[in-house]
């Protein structure tokens, strides 16, 4: 609800924009105050407050406040609270944490269990058949791809991660039916990744996109795990989008580990830990 208000802000009349900004600034307070106080705080008339609620698709102020109260009662409101230059360290910490928590709650409520299940099925089949699972990403998403490869190879999966565009298209050309290529992208518009996805599909591999909805990459692959967020894809330092991608990878790795079973994984992981003990100081 708050995300929709934020997205609609620029299209509203000036007076209604002031009401919208009041909602976004303190949604909990807005849901509790009478219309007269709300109008005074926004420097608009009472009918303007009602018009704003109807512009957002609600029957009136009462309906709007009821839905708004339900939104904020879940915990952290989903607002992209940008860090300002004048913010003190405690303010920055709160905003960054709130953004991350809100993004996770939004994903929990909106993620498709059906889509996740289909991807896990493909990953399990690739594992059982001894096929390859590859991860592609560039820039910040390339780091997420490396993290994914690190998680999957510990499960005994034939996995590799590529962050170079030339390596991605060459590797994709070597994939075969039964292999899985997971392509990770913040923008969903990176040409190298879309080219790699097209090549992998051409050679029969199952392609999976972890990216935003309705992007070219999402429309290119066989399966799509939506990772929607409020960050602009050209933001200099992706924050919540990176955390969402890591979260999706953790979900996939955990589901695959459960499919493989503890009887197979426990001896493998136990041996790894034993071998790593010599690398640590006592």
Explain what the structure shows.
The protein has helices at 2-8, 14-25, 27-30, 35-42, 46-55, 61-72, 89-110, 113-128, 140-153, 165-173, 191-202, 216-220, 240-260, 262-277; strands spanning 132-136, 158-162, 180-184, 206-211, 223-226. The protein folds into three domains: 2-76, Winged helix-like DNA-binding domain superfamily/Winged helix DNA-binding domain (Arc Repressor Mutant, subunit A, Orthogonal Bundle), CATH 1.10.10.10; 80-110; 112-274, 3-Layer(aba) Sandwich (Rossmann fold), CATH 3.40.50.10490. With 282 residues, the chain is of the alpha/beta class. Helix 8 packs across helix 13 and helix 9 (140-153) packs parallel to helix 13 (240-260). Strands 2-1-3-4-5 form a five-stranded parallel beta sheet, with helices on both faces. Strand 4, helix 12 and strand 5 (223-226) form a beta-alpha-beta unit. Residues 75-81 have low confidence and may be disordered.
**Helix amount:** 55-70%
**CA gyration radius, whole angstroms:** 23 Å
Which structural class matches the secondary elements? alpha/beta
Tally of individual domains:
3
What amount of the residues lies in strands? 5-15%
- Strand order in space, largest sheet: 2-1-3-4-5
Please name the fourth-level CATH homologous superfamily of the largest domain.
Glucose-6-phosphate isomerase like protein, domain 1
Please describe the biggest sheet, giving its number of strands, its sense, and whether it closes into a barrel: 5 strands, parallel
